[in-house]
Each structure stands twice: as C-alpha cells, then as structure tokens.
Amino acid sequence: MFTGIIEDIGKIKAIRQGANSMVLTLSSGKITEDMRLGDSISVNGVCLTVTSFSGEDFTVDVMPETVKATSLRSLRVGSSVNLERAMSANGRFGGHFVTGHVDGTGTIVKKERKENAVYYVIDIGETLAKNCIPRGSIALDGTSLTIFGLEGNIATVSLIPLTHQETVLGMKQAGDIVNVETDMIGKYIFRSMEQTNKKQTLTMDFLAEHGY
Length: 212
Fold this sequence. Notes:
Elements: E1 8-17, E2 22-27, E3 40-43, E4 46-54, E5 57-62, H1 64-69, E6 80-85, E7 104-114, E8 117-123, H2 125-129, E9 137-140, E10 143-151, E11 154-159, H3 161-166, E12 177-182, H4 184-196, H5 204-209
Antiparallel strand pairs: 1-2, 1-6, 2-5, 3-4, 3-6, 4-5, 7-8, 7-12, 8-11, 9-10, 9-12, 10-11
C-alpha cells in the first residue's frame, strides 16, 4: 500500500526486454537506503517487487499483463520515473490509499500554468471516468492528486509547484501517457451499486439514498 506522495525521481539504468515482459534496473539513492529483497516499490504508480539490489541500483520484474496495461512499456534507458516505498505504519499518512494496481492509462490533453498552479487536463477514458467524482482522489503516475474538474472522460487536476518540480509529471506535456489508478473506495462503491441494480444509474442522489 502506498500514499501517492512521491519520494524520489529515479532513472532507468537498464532494460532487459522479454517477448512480453521486462526486467528493469533503476537507480535511486534514497529508495535503496533501507531496501530489502521482496520490498514493494511504486514505479510510476505501478507496484513492483524488488528482486535484487546493490548500492543505489535495484531490479524489478514486470509481468506481461503489467506491460500491456501500463505506460511502463514506453520506458527507455535514461527515463525518469516516480518512486515511492510502501507506506510505513509509524509515519503520517498523507495523500490517499494507493494500491499500485493501475487501472489503465490516460493521455494529457492540455497543460497550462495558472499563477502558482499547473493544470493538467487528461483524457482518462469512459471506463475510468465512471469511478471518479469531482473533488475525489486519483493517482497519476503514482502521484496523489485531487480531481477538481470532471466532464465526460476528461479529468482536470492541479499541481502545486513542489509536486510539479519533484515528480515526473512536471516533465510531461500534452500527448504524453500517464498511469491512472482511481480511488479504491470509489471502485468498490461503484461495483457494489452496479451489482445491486444493473439498471440503476449511479448518481450522487442514488449513493446518498443507499447510505454512502
């Protein structure tokens, strides 16, 4: 489990490409400080397992399904990635509950600076948009953000200067792909309501009526 508060920007040092899988070697002095074999690490929002490490480098396996479902397939040697270690039980919990199980990808439609904020307008597709609400949480490349605009498939988020500077989102432009994980609680509610009454449209009034 992660919080979506990015700890470091790492670099891809090597990629061993399989027919449908990948083995990534990454470099990050901060992430490897207390690393153990088998640790879970969020790489651009994807939960991966440490299979080996030495000094500032560590290696993770990426299974075929993960390659297909995420933006990791577009990584190259030298690419920058967001990194976060699994949530510590004895620390403050910022962000929101992020599992590292990416739901799909979105495309940045527009990026615009407004005073001290940078707005990102992102097409997340119809399926993912169903699990989102305005002012709800969303993780983009593993970064915990708040949706402040939602129209159809288009979600808008705003980054403060620190988030823009300290995550790979700041390097991305219109046309770039981001990994998307919608809010875990929202997904369970949507699934529950969908199974309860498949013909009922999920609305705020419907949720309130059923005690959510």
